[in-house]
Design a protein that fits this description.
Layout (H helix, E strand, L loop, with lengths): L18 H37 L10 H38 L2 H13 L5 H15 L1 H10 L17 H25 L3 H9 L4 H30 L2 H6 L19 H8 L6 H31 L7
Helix pairs in contact: 1-11, 2-3, 2-6, 2-8, 2-11, 3-6, 4-6, 6-8, 7-8, 8-11, 10-11
């Protein structure tokens, strides 16, 4: 038996890369390298400026409890506000995305999608003033009710705030701010669900909701998770809206309805940096380094989830 030779590409059929293609590939590669260099430069700057606070004695750090004691309540406040916003915004965003993609008439879907996306263009300062002047007073009855009937839960232990400037209010404001991000990504993923799967489900007698549950949601699950993680990254770094609404304390607590809620890293930096000098500046930069690492981890996790979705095809 003679071995068969692999078919060779005819000389005239070789792919020739045009100068424009080579220029585009080089510029794209250079842009990616530039972004990595900028990221490395930011990390190097934060580490170098935070180093004095990392090696300073505990009594020299504001509060006298050391750098870990200073940053820990801020980390708790940052994660608490962001997770609360994520828990509120994700179900609403998914419901809106499904309605726009599969239930709403074409004209209503286009208008509603535009309005939802427009929420992302509103400045965070506007959200902060809305939360302070409208949402905080409106939530006062709920704060009192929660402290009276749900006080056995640590999240609502009270005493209830008499101003409404609580972590619960901040979480709702952040939920509205990240809603368009999660909704837009979820909507695009749901629309891309394979038509073959959707038509097969309907042909077998499934209702529209059963078709969505069996064919659309499983396909778009990773995209929803990725959108939620990107929204979480936005909530973690939000500054002005939190600084305007929250009346933060210094203790690390999970209480959502009292005035003793800890501040967030970003809002604490914004409020204290203008008057900070010397080691106080290094301490604030050290807290910024912690926020940088948290946000970087969240975005890397979101990218990993998005890349996993690329392995799913309509034939799977």
């Amino acid at each position: 038996m003679t071995a068969t030779k692999a078919p060779t590409e005819p000389p005239g059929q070789r792919t020739v890369r045009r100068p424009g293609d080579r220029l585009f590939a080089a510029s794209a590669k250079g842009s990616g390298i530039f972004i990595l260099l900028v990221l490395a430069g930011v990390a190097a700057f934060l580490i170098s400026r935070a180093l004095p606070a990392l090696v300073a004695p505990a009594e020299d750090i504001p509060g006298g409890a050391g750098l870990a004691g200073y940053i820990a309540p801020l980390v708790v406040g940052t994660l608490l506000a962001a997770v609360l916003a994520l828990l509120v915004a994700t179900p609403l965003a998914v419901a809106i995305a499904l309605y726009v993609a599969y239930y709403a008439p074409r004209r209503v879907a286009a208008a509603l999608g535009y309005v939802i996306d427009l929420l992302a263009a509103i400045p965070s300062v506007v959200y902060g003033f809305w939360g302070l002047t409208v949402l905080a007073p409106a939530l006062l009855p709920f704060h009192e009710w929660a402290a009276e009937y749900l006080g056995w839960i640590p999240l609502f232990a009270g005493p209830a705030s008499n101003t409404g400037r609580t972590m619960f209010t901040v979480g709702l404001v952040l939920a509205v701010m990240i809603l368009p991000i999660i909704s837009a990504i979820s909507r695009e993923v749901f629309i891309q669900a394979p038509a073959l799967h959707r038509e097969a489900a309907l042909a077998l007698g499934a209702t529209r909701w059963e078709m969505i549950k069996m064919a659309v949601i499983p396909y778009g699950k990773s995209g929803v998770i990725a959108g939620a993680m990107l929204g979480l990254g936005r909530a973690l770094g939000e500054t002005m809206a939190v600084a305007i609404v929250l009346s933060g304390g210094a203790a690390a607590t999970l209480n959502l309805i009292s005035n003793s809620s800890p501040s967030t890293i970003a809002s604490n930096i914004a409020l204290r940096f203008p008057e900070a000098t010397g080691l106080d500046v290094n301490t604030l930069i050290a807290s910024g380094l912690v926020l940088f690492l948290i946000t970087l981890a969240v975005n890397m996790l979101a990218r990993w989830i998005v890349n996993r979705r690329a392995d799913f095809s309509g034939a799977n």
